[in-house]
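PROTOCOL LOG
Step 1. Enter all chains and additional molecules of the complex.
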Amino acid sequence: MVKKTSKTQPQAQEELAPSPDSPLYAQPKSVEEMAQGFSVNPDNCGLWKQQQFRPRVWLAVADWSGQPPNNLRPDTKLGSLVPLWGIGEQNRLVQTTNQHQVFAPFASSMAPPNTLLPAETTVLQWENVVWTFQTPRTPCWGTP
Amino acid sequence: MKFSPVVIVLWMLIATVVARGQGQTGWSAQFFDPGGIEDQVVLIDFGAPFVYDPQTHLATLGDGSVKLDLITVSVLSMQTSSVAVLRADANPSGQYTATSYLNLALKNFTDQEGKRVSLNGSQLGSYLIILRGQTIGQKIGQTYTVNVSVQPKSAATITAPALAGPVRNQIVLDVRNADATAFFQALSKEMGAIKIEYDFGSDSTVSNIVTGVKKIDPPPALGFAVTLYPKTPLPYAAKAYKVNITLPQSALPKNLETTPKTQFKVIASATYPTPVIVETAATYDFEPSFTSAVNKSKNVRTNTGLFIVALNPLLFLHETGIDGSPSRYTHWYDFRPNISANVDTLPEKSSTTPNRVTIALDTELGLTRERNQTGAPREGGPPLDQWTWTNGVRTDTDRDFKKFSTYWHTDLAPDFWKLSETQAFRTRNVVSLGMAAKQAKTPFVTAYRLRPSVGYDLGSTTVRSGVFNPELGSSVSRFLFKLDTMLEIRRNVTFTAVDTGYYLFDATRRDARDFLDAQIAVNTGLLLRLDTNKIQSAVAFRYQRGSQPPSFTPVDTLSLGLKLYR
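Step 2. Run joint prediction.
Step 3. Record the structure below.
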């Protein structure tokens, strides 16, 4: 669930309002609630990455682009989702990704990439970019 | 070795299944054992999300090509001495909308007698998962198979996940069933013995690169991965290559699955194609052309060769305001040296082509601003405006380097929401999950650009030989308005028109000047089929008219040439 963190951003927050067809949004949980019962081991991390981290990243991409989530594919290029891909759009995608708390239950967020990614970057590659730029590193760092 | 009749029958069953079934490209499966036997899970990834109907238990793959029946899923244990058929419960997982999921979870593995079976118990190795379904358009049901391999739980493993951009200076080692912190400490002591080899393959003309490690990061708290920082960053390469990490034997966990005699090699794949930066695009352009130029003073038309070169890389790009916290503004700055030449081969006195060589040392300061948006989110996200302010020192000279105008240049260029749209955006092919892919959308206009800018030049002109033009004088003080437009039709034909109007404050007459550079380019595709950094070629028809610095001589040319660009 997206938290309102800035009073100067009421409109941007409305854009990230819960999607009605998204159960992840319909039943929001706090980071603490999500952390309960999560024990760190490579297998749990693998499951968490596949079942929670990845769907959140996809939802963030959908929110950022204004596309229905069902329209995304692993090979969908980020540059095809906005009129002009650039630093501004990449930054907005990082912001949206962090607003979706993709690393919950860990208190990590995505640091901005130190380079402008090509417009050809796919949603699948973006997942890896988000994972690579986790800050601070979660205990699940290294999960393939 | 003797096989029982049951085993032989089962092997025949497998052979039949594999022969009739389809081993699917792009499908993969991973085994997870987070706790006890009841928690064991196999996750199947179909290469794309799928839509699941809980009423019928049917999963429709993303491209709508296959419907899978998830009521019955079988798992074949592939042992050399025995074959067992297991059952599993299948449920979609990785949900991200009400009906769409990223993977399929298999749980509760039972044998023929209904007893719970552990996949990494006595039956180690490889399993074949059999799914039943139907390819859309075919009447007969089919079986689909996907392999999953299971490692012994007690044995330690060290693996390196596949490496891909944009980070090129770290390699992660995933340590399982062993103390990663102890491994890190042992590895740190023997850092000099770690060898990393970038192996481009025997068919590559590039030599392999061997390097060492300059730093090792410990695993995060409670974590299990060690991060190596190679001395030589992972290089860009057109094709994927191998990274061989050789670790000293003394640093390895004792319960490693295979005990090496002296060294242990971890192999990872690396994919780092040369990146292509699109925004504030670096441009490289070479265009030799056959040109017909009009000399108005002599009232004659002359044919000549015209050569246009533009090298405009983007260097030292820095971004600010991109810490991921909510903000409507982003800034960036960069350095953009620019060398461009537009010269012919005619004698100086009779030449009426632009004959301008520009060397520029520009810096750009950029700002993006997210507009307030009312109503529902729109396609392409909220509107984003961009402003680019360029400042730099430039030198204009004629072809023979006789006159030099050296000046400070500044200009401001806005890119408002949808004043420009890229080809990728206008030709995107978005289809809802579970639907057959439509034919790629190709609108009539596949890209366009409308980019106005205003600027000012201030400097002076020096003459190496000859005399000053008395009309222009020796100082440079001019306002300029530039309109950069582009229209791309059906991906292949591009109309470009760049018009620059000058107001010369110090001119004694004709203080308003103008230069138009219009072009029609027919794209002839990528240059050869080699990895030439996506250099493309086009047949270009160009029209140039007006006058431009430094000499502001009248230009009226028509050119036909071949354009090589990126």
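Step 4. Note key features.
The helical segments of chain A are 10-15, 23-26, 31-35, 42-65, 87-99, 123-132.
Chain A touches chain B through 89 residues (CB under 8 Å).
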